[in-house]
């Protein structure tokens, strides 16, 4: 049967060449669009995304301050935070350095990360400083152990938390009580989180999280605040800031992290949607064009169909014949796109799902675009069709 369909297509190649070329381009464009969407969805839902709902970010820049002046300014900021925590409009407050997400560019950690020494091995990772309140603010997913605090352990080392990617890099089943050497300091791992994503659509990368203290203060302090009532909280924060920050070199920045998160999503998703709009219009025009080609071709083959009916073929068989021709053309037209996919994809789960979805869509496209011409064929009256010119 398949050989017979190939012969029919070959004999009608001049009529079907338009459909064949059209469907090659449809498959490639559709595959690229669906794979992009599938990858976007997977990256969005990967472990490591921090909860920024109802979270404000305050940035304190201590310009021109060094040494004891910087420490004094940071203590002023710390004092402010203690008063902010007491506000009824505030849920929790966390102080950090290089920790808060959605504020930085996507950079390759293998180039921009720092080296950690672990069991005579060196691996690249991002390092971050924060306090014991970060868990409450960002609702981090702790999968082993506990969250860090600023208290030294019995052996004099400081506690640290790592992302599960560090375990994967070192082939560890458990990281608890393992020690890491970073910048001549020994840290003992007390907890493991499921991941840490600096931006919403990048993969979680190996991350070392350490307690922030006066020895690792920088001239820029990030403060994340989970609020109960945003408007009331912002007013309370500004009032307290004006009361407790007396150093004019300390500049104040306020960012709504959830708005930043949504803007990031909209900007990144916008490219996919913009790509999807012309794809939809292309599919509509292609569907109309393919339907027209099969309808015209069916009209020109009326005598052939009438003869098939006359020698015993059923109307359902004629419908299936036309639909099978359409499916076969679609299947052949997918081959160039599938070959291309081997060069541009690594066949990760979202890519396989995207390619598979495209194949299913193309087969459905072939069936529905040929259904009406096939239905018209089934209504042929053999006696009248023999006279058809």
Strand count, sense and closure of the main sheet?
11 strands, mixed
Distance between the termini: 28 Å
Instruction: Determine Rg (CA atoms, Å).
Output: 32 Å
- What is the averaged pLDDT score? 78
Structural class: alpha+beta
In the predicted model, the low-confidence regions spanning at least 5 consecutive residues are: none
Strand content: 15-25%
Provide structural commentary:
The chain is an alpha+beta fold. The protein folds into two domains: 2-46 and 264-385, no CATH class; 64-248, no CATH class. It contains twelve helices and eleven strands. Strands 1, 2, 3, 4, 5, 6, 7, 8, 9, 10 and 11 form an eleven-stranded mixed beta sheet that branches. α2 crosses α10 (315-344) and α10 (315-344) runs antiparallel to α11. The longest helix is centred in the C-terminal third of the chain and has 44 residues, at 257-300. The model has no long low-confidence stretch (mean pLDDT 78).
